[in-house]
Q: What sequence folds into this?
């Protein structure tokens, strides 16, 4: 029971990811109308549209007409991820996270923790450049460029129609993350991660660090797939992890034995803290 509680966010993330995949599978094979489509374009209960903003942006750059349904779908997604944290998509929804998490586990077990083949400092922001490059390519070829190579699309289509040779691309991502570059695909390349980082940059739900409880053990920095978002806060002050690359995965909370990290509401808690500090100074 203690292990389950310790890994509660991991379990909840897996339940969410597998439920979404199952609903896509059920829509194709049994005609269920709960969630129809894929992670680029879906309909919830055959009524509510959900559109991936980056996929639609590629379409717009490619010269395609964007329907009202797609625009409504984008607005819904922007509101959802703008509130809960944009990159929560990466850790709670995206099926490729199953592969990259497995690669991270293999990396730890085989002691490949350091980025021994590639310097991460030189390419950390490449995903943002890649996001723009793919939009330019979309405009040049008249089609959504990333959709041709997206492992997310390959994975979700594979659930319904079979992977075919798509498994090779997924295997490459696994091997790349496990033995070449830590958090390589999600943390350095994937343009969707860059997109949702920007979408959730002002999100309300964030991890809060309590310095008074923290013993600086470093467990959170070791397990975090985007530990550059933790570094400015850990060892310095009590504050919210506000780095836009944070995926709100909860890994840091699960490994913290000091009860120094927790999910909280960023602006509400900060306003209360500022008010209390002001009152005490008076």
A:
């Amino acid at each position: 029971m203690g292990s389950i509680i310790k890994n509660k966010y991991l379990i909840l993330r897996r339940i969410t990811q597998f439920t979404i995949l199952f609903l896509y599978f059920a829509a194709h094979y049994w005609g269920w109308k709960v969630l129809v489509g894929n992670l680029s374009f879906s309909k919830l209960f055959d009524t509510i549209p959900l559109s991936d903003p980056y996929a639609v942006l590629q379409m717009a750059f490619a010269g395609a007409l964007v329907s009202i349904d797609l625009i409504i779908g984008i607005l819904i997604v922007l509101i959802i991820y703008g509130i809960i944290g944009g990159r929560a998509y990466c850790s709670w929804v995206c099926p490729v996270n199953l592969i990259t998490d497995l690669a991270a586990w293999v990396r730890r077990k085989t002691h490949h923790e350091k980025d021994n083949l590639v310097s991460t400092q030189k390419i950390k922001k490449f995903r943002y450049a890649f996001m723009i490059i793919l939009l330019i390519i979309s405009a040049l070829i008249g089609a959504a460029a990333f959709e041709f190579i997206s492992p997310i699309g390959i994975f979700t289509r594979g659930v319904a129609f079979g992977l075919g040779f798509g498994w090779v691309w997924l295997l490459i991502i696994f091997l790349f993350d496990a033995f070449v570059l830590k958090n390589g695909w999600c943390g350095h390349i994937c343009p969707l991660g860059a997109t949702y980082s920007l979408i959730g940059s002002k999100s309300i739900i964030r991890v809060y660090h309590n310095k008074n409880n923290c013993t600086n053990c470093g467990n959170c920095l070791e397990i975090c797939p985007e530990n550059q978002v933790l570094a400015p806060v850990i060892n310095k002050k009590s504050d919210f992890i506000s780095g836009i690359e944070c995926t709100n995965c909860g890994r840091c909370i699960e490994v913290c034995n000091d009860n120094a990290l927790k999910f909280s509401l960023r602006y509400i808690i900060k306003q209360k803290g500022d008010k209390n500090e002001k009152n005490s100074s008076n």
User: Anything to note?
Assistant: The first helix runs from residue 2 to 6. Residues 115-119, 271-282 have pLDDT under 50 and may be disordered. The radius of gyration is 20 Å. The CA atoms of residues 167 and 276 lie 55 Å apart.
